[in-house]
Design goal:
This protein is α/β, with parallel strands linked by helices and 308 residues long. The protein has helices spanning 51-59, 80-85, 102-112, 122-128, 144-155, 174-189, 201-207, 225-229, 275-285, 298-305; strands at 4-15, 25-36, 40-44, 66-71, 74-75, 87-90, 162-166, 193-197, 210-215, 218-224, 234-242, 255-260, 263-269, 287-294. The protein is globular, with a radius of gyration of 24 Å.
Length: 308
């Protein structure tokens, strides 16, 4: 049985409006989930779903209303300092002094956590996030991608076994995003448990072992990425064709056929229609030049569970 790195049990947060009780906001509604040691865990949901509230409760910046949260079996209520020491949070916002160098900033931040000078691994962390050459530069001179990597380095100064990445690739171009994920995967290989929030669903699909989807404070899905994708029922087949003179004859129960120039698209429920029958009916009425399939992706599941 895998060791549990982080767990929430009936975790609830209500933001109260003292002037109007009816306008109180239920940000988390009895959230139950467990994150296993060593996994990359995706935490997804639309804006206002409760993701940031959950993260901020763990980080100690928001006080939960009720329920329980544990990190490595340590109750947040019993030992909040130890819980916070076990977590490194990489925020969305870039928030450091532009006149500090990366090296000086990491040393200073390590001091805030009470890490003694002899125990600091500043140079190693800078190397891990590929910033050793910029160690003594002003942070204001770093590119956007470098600043994102520096945020990760900042969250690692106390060597937390759990790293929470809150929208880490926001505003980062394709090449820098690729480098950033390479760094994250390397950290995970070293044993760091990763919790990831992102609006880029293809990133979660590629990176995460398991995914939780939250909507309006409620947990609406929690499973392996593979099993979530298996829930997709609608599939598409795209046919590139020529001699398309009999499109009206391409009819099959439970299959919707559409055409555009030299292309036919068949949309169907994989549980009700067969791949072979669709190909056969198209082949009877047109010359097929090429076939491609679209099995759907995590975005389809996300939209379905969050009502779009």
């Amino acid at each position: 049985m895998n060791k549990i790195a982080l767990s929430a049990e009936n975790l609830t947060k209500i933001y109260k409006n003292n002037n109007n009780v009816d306008k109180s906001t239920l940000a988390l509604n009895k959230l139950n989930l467990k994150v296993e040691c060593g996994e990359i865990f995706g935490l997804l949901g639309p804006n206002g779903a409760g993701k940031s509230t959950f993260i901020n409760i763990l980080a100690g910046t928001v006080i939960k209303t009720s329920g329980k949260a544990e990190v490595w079996g340590i109750d947040l209520d019993v030992n909040p300092r130890q819980v916070r020491a076990s977590i490194g949070v990489v925020p969305q916002e870039i928030n450091f002094d532009p006149f500090f160098s990366p090296k000086k900033m990491l040393d200073l931040h390590a001091g805030f956590y009470g890490v003694k000078k002899n125990d600091r691994i500043t140079e190693l962390i800078l190397k891990m996030v590929s910033l050793e050459e910029q160690a003594n530069s002003y942070t204001r001179s770093l590119s956007g991608g470098m600043k994102r990597r520096l945020l990760i380095a900042k969250a690692m100064v106390h060597q937390p076994p759990i790293l929470i990445l809150d929208e880490p690739t926001a505003g980062v171009d394709v090449e820098l995003r690729k480098n950033l994920w390479s760094n994250v995967k390397q950290l995970n290989k070293l044993g760091v448990t990763i919790i990831l929030t992102t609006h880029q669903l293809y990133e979660a699909q590629e990176m995460c072992n398991r995914i939780a989807i939250i909507n309006k404070g409620n947990l609406v899905a929690l499973d392996t990425t593979k099993k979530l994708l298996e829930q997709i029922e609608t599939k598409k087949i795209k046919f590139k064709v020529k001699n398309l003179n009999n499109f009206d004859k391409i009819i099959l129960n439970n299959v919707k056929f559409t055409k555009s120039d030299d292309e036919i698209i068949a949309t169907y429920d994989k549980n009700k229609s067969g791949f072979e029958k669709i190909i056969a009916i198209v082949k009877e009425n047109a010359e097929i030049m090429d076939i491609s399939t679209d099995d759907g992706d995590l975005e389809d599941i996300f939209l379905k569970l969050t009502n779009g």
